[in-house]
Amino acid sequence: MNLAAPISTSTSTSTSTAVRPHAHGLMPLNLPSAASSSLRRSIFASLRKKISPMASAPASASAALSTAAPADNGAAKPTEQRPVQVAKRLEKFKTTIFTQMSMLAVKHGAINLGQGFPNFDGPDFVKEAAIEAIKAGKNQYARGYGVPELNSAVAERFLKDSGLQIDPDKEVTVTSGCTEAIAATILGLINPGDEVILFAPFYDSYEATLSMAGANVKAITLRPPDFAVPLEELKAAVSKNTRAIMINTPHNPTGKMFTREELEFIADLCKENDVLLFADEVYDKLAFEADHISMASIPGMYERTVTMNSLGKTFSLTGWKIGWAIAPPHLTWGVRQAHSFLTFATSTPMQSAAAAALRAPDSYFEELKRDYGAKKALLVDGLKAAGFIVYPSSGTYFVMVDHTPFGFDNDIEFCEYLIREVGVVAIPPSVFYLNPEDGKNLVRFTFCKDDDTLRAAVDRMKAKLRKK
């Protein structure tokens, strides 16, 4: 395996290193209107001065522009500008800061250590399997819940990893990435008014999809330095209305791995209160300091757990969007009902290639972990040398740091400065909290980049960042 072979080796002012959208790594700004209005105002104030007013104009402004009388010179009338429209359940998610950050990143030639996708390609044996599947004519609709060879490969891998034997036809549902597995699980099993508990910071699609389902969201905040689960706070949060608890281990964005003690405590709460457990385990093969523990493997938990995973992180093929949900038949029914009306089926030839990937020898996964461990050390050492307070990362390919030594009021102000003055992109994690104040001192970096890119970014930060 060669994780050092980049798609593009440019680390200077090329726009190829700037921010690009990605489903499971870059999240929009979710600042609840009721939370931290002062932080919201400070976040947008400086950026609005630098970006075209139409990029962030309120509906009233665009409406006013649309009603302005055009000059009567015989020219064609401009396209009418109308206020943006969005369903009430998604109103709070429509504002994003990342368009502005992307524009600034391109302008300043920033190196992208923000988004969770590699800048190197996946393994040849998997790509060749996709090519062969296409040539073999596997190009029409797949069976709705997955082609048989992939369902079987998922079941084989799950047995090897968790010790649990499952029925590939009745308990595996192939989805368009883990994000769709999350959506199908929530929309298929959660009713309006149900309460779901998340651990903040969290992947943004959790809250957005729960909003679409009409659920009530509770968040338990994981705090540095170790981001441990506050067990008694969690216990107090479970109520008669709690339908599910959602976990992500290894955890994006903190890099935390839930301990066996934490998982067993959560399992006991679920069993005592008849609560479901949704487990996002997309980073299970990037566990550096301890073995990954699948929540479904905790005694008594398989019958109430949906385990979600995908191909992208493990095989550096994030653009293929191949994911899956594993659950007992009585929960799989709901997942599949939603999946049928979300995407119905997932790319047929890529499913065949995914089956080949999951049957890779153990040496592939060992080398993957070893290579990413070296990348993590390169970035962590560099961040410490640049002056950050760096928190431990036991899994994923993310590192969380405290930016306060550099004297900025919040994470988005710092990240905007980092792009403009230093030339490096990071993610402001306040966007992953119900209350943005909880994350305003933190910044997330990723090390899923080739070594030259990591070194160039570290060199820029060491040369230009100054403590205040």
UniProtKB/TrEMBL annotation:
Pfam families, per this entry? Answer: Aminotran_1_2
Q: Which cofactors are named for this entry?
A: pyridoxal 5'-phosphate
Region annotated Disordered sits at: 1-31
- Highest taxon in the source lineage: Eukaryota
Q: Which UniProt keywords apply?
A: Aminotransferase, Pyridoxal phosphate, Transferase
Classification via CDD domains: AAT_like
- Report the InterPro entries cross-referenced here: Aminotransferase_I/II_large, Kynurenine-oxoglutarate_AT, PyrdxlP-dep_Trfase, PyrdxlP-dep_Trfase_major, PyrdxlP-dep_Trfase_small
Family matches, as SUPFAM superfamilies: PLP-dependent transferases (SSF53383)
Q: GO cellular component annotations, sorted alphabetically?
A: cytoplasm
Query: Can you give the residue ranges of the Aminotransferase class I/classII large domain?
Result: 111-460
Compositionally skewed regions (Low complexity) per UniProt = 8-17
Molecular function as annotated in GO: kynurenine-oxoglutarate transaminase activity; pyridoxal phosphate binding
Which Gene3D superfamilies does the protein's record reference? Aspartate Aminotransferase, domain 1 (3.90.1150.10), Type I PLP-dependent aspartate aminotransferase-like (Major domain) (3.40.640.10)
Please report the name of this protein according to its UniProt entry.
Aminotransferase class I/classII large domain-containing protein
